[in-house]
Specification:
The chain is mostly helical and 104 residues long. It is built from three helices and no strands.
């Protein structure tokens, strides 16, 4: 498993998270959950701005955090290869059930 394939997998996970956040917010807004009081009421324009800020925030978090993921993956691969009797084997980390679901 290469660093680029991990990057793609994490990007897909982040994309799934962004989609889920947007869906949940739209559904909450449609149910009127943001109109409980005047200070919480959001018009369509404000709501769309909120969705964009959330989307951009998640993207920024991905960009800033991905270097740490790639670095940890390289360190993990080096450590496993150092201690493995199969020095030349490719190390494939376990994929959690949540990540497999997010890929679908």
């Amino acid at each position: 498993m290469s660093t680029s394939s991990v990057t793609v997998s994490v990007a897909e996970l982040v994309s799934f998270i962004k989609s889920k956040v947007q869906t949940n917010l739209v559904e909450s807004n449609n149910r009127g959950e943001f109109r409980a009081g005047e200070s919480l009421a959001l018009g369509d324009l404000e709501f769309n701005k909120l969705l964009r800020v959330i989307d951009l925030s998640i993207s920024e978090g991905f960009s800033l955090g991905m270097n740490n993921v790639e670095s940890a993956l390289r360190d993990y691969t080096k450590e496993v290869q150092k201690t493995s009797q199969y020095k030349n084997d490719i190390v494939i980390p376990l994929v959690t059930k949540e990540v497999r679901k997010a890929r679908k």
